[in-house]
Amino acid sequence: MIELVPGLPPFFNALIVALLVGVAVGTLTTLFVAQAERAKMRRRIAQVAGIMTSSKSASGQRGASAGQRRRVVAAKLKEIEDRAKAKKSSGKSLRDMLLQANLDWTPAKYYVVSAIFALVGTALYLLKGFSPMIAPLVVLTLGIGVPRWLLRRKATKRQKAFIFKFADAVDVIVRGIRSGLPVAECLNIIGREMPEPIGLEFRLIVEGQKLGLTMDEVMERALVRMPTPELSFFAIVLSIQQQTGGNLADTLSKLSDVLRGRKKLKDKIQSLSSEAKASAMIIGSLPFFVTGLLYLVNPDYLMVLFTNPTGHVLIAGGLTWMSLGTFIMSKMIDFDY
Q1: pLDDT higher than threshold 80 for residue 32
Q2: Helix/strand/coil for 248
Q3: 246 within a domain of the structure (yes/no)
Q4: How far apart are CA 175 and CA 250, in angstroms?
Q5: 313 domain residue, yes or no
Q6: Sign of the dihedral defined by the CA atoms of residues 295, 300, 301, 305, in that order
Q7: What is the mean pLDDT of the chain?
Q8: Better-predicted residue by pLDDT, 242 or 260
Q9: Is residue 184 a part of any domain in this protein?
Q10: Does residue 201 or residue 14 have the better pLDDT?
Q11: What is the rounded distance in angstroms from the CA atom of residue 240 to the CA atom of residue 224?
Q12: Which of 52, 186, 221, 247 is the most buried (most CB within 10 A)?
């Protein structure tokens, strides 16, 4: 058997080998998924560009104003695409993640809390009498993995709550514009009347306008706090309408229909995939369930896995490949709406 770290028991060497193999396969899988997403985005952009080109050739007789509007729309879409690529290449900073989770923390405070959490958890781990060789992994998990996971979970939960009521907020703007209210007053009504987090985000948009920021600037800041496709669509509509004019109420009404259609599609996908998710959970829990039953019935028969080096290899390999399979299946059902 290969000993990556001389002196360690065979189980830990096997675990290290299995982890390295899992990380390599996971990295290749992630790169493949990212390449597929980029190809999908290029096809989408080419399709949109083709539609706009054909629309321009078919409506050339409608006057120079319509052509000017299409050129402005095309330029705005290109600008948004370039900005999204630049932001994606720069990565997501910790400050942005704290804003998305609506935590009034500085990065320094986050690191201090994570360090305290890791030290306390590691101290409890060592006081329980567990192996000190695993302590570095416990420190990394409790100091980096768990805080980041909790931060992403809070941000994701907040984004889902925002999306759930966002179509209703757009309908409020549509009814307000058709009744003669200015857009700023409609945004102010949403900030006062709608529940969190929609109310908070629209109050911040209104406050930004009062401070003298343009609509593009306040919406760009809102997208940092709430990076959802729905809010991005809304920002594009407002930006294009300010530059080209047009009936904003009708445009937002169509946007509301699109948002509700996206929500229906998301609910349909979740309902269709719920059976597969339940089956995956049952199948994934079977090895642990059967192991517990075997230990209750005949402990000596099962303890060979924990006392024999070959059993260590089997356990490490099984856990690694089960984790990798779970990761791949989660990516397969993780759809972009």
Answers
A1: no
A2: helix
A3: yes
A4: 10
A5: no
A6: positive
A7: 77
A8: 260
A9: yes
A10: 201
A11: 20
A12: 186
Most confident segment among 3-7, 157-161, 241-245, 276-280: 157-161
pLDDT category of residue 55 using cuts at 50, 70 and 90: very low
Q: Is 47 helix (H, G, I), strand (E, B) or coil?
A: helix
- Distance separating alpha carbons of residues 61 and 195, to the nearest angstrom: 47
Rounded Cα–Cα distance for residues 117 and 250 (Å): 52
Residue 286's pLDDT is what?
Answer: 85
Give 140-143's long-range contacts (Cβ < 8 A, gap of 24+): 142/117, 142/118, 143/114, 143/115, 143/117, 143/118
Do residues 14 and 312 make contact, with C-beta atoms less than 8 angstroms apart? yes
H/E element, 90: helix 64-90
> Which among 206, 93, 209, 97 has a CA at the least distance from the CA of 147?
97
Residues 286, 322 contacting (CB under 8 angstroms): no
Q: Give the count of beta carbons closer than 10 Å to the beta carbon of residue 8.
A: 14
Closest CA to 32 of 335, 333, 332: 332
Give the type of residue at 110.
Y
For the stretch 200-229, pLDDT in tens is: 999 999 998 888 888 888 888 888 888 888
Q: Is residue 284 part of a domain?
A: no
pLDDT tens for each residue of 66-87: 566 666 666 666 666 666 566 6
In angstroms, rounded to a whole number, what is the distance separating the alpha carbons of residues 200 and 50?
Answer: 39
Q: Enter the tokens of residue 220.
A: 């760009």
pLDDT above 70 covers what percent of the chain?
Answer: 70
3-class SS at 265? helix
Rounded Cα distance, 104 and 60, in Å: 52
Provide the domain limits for residue 151.
93-257
Place of tokens 């594009």: 236
CA distance 77 to 264: 26
Q: Where are the alpha helices (DSSP H) in 182-247?
A: 183-193, 198-210, 215-225, 229-244
H-only helix segments in the chain: 10-58, 64-90, 94-100, 107-127, 135-140, 146-178, 183-193, 198-210, 215-225, 229-244, 248-297, 299-307, 309-332
How far apart are alpha carbons 294 and 301 in whole angstroms? 8
Cα separation of 315 and 329, whole Å? 21
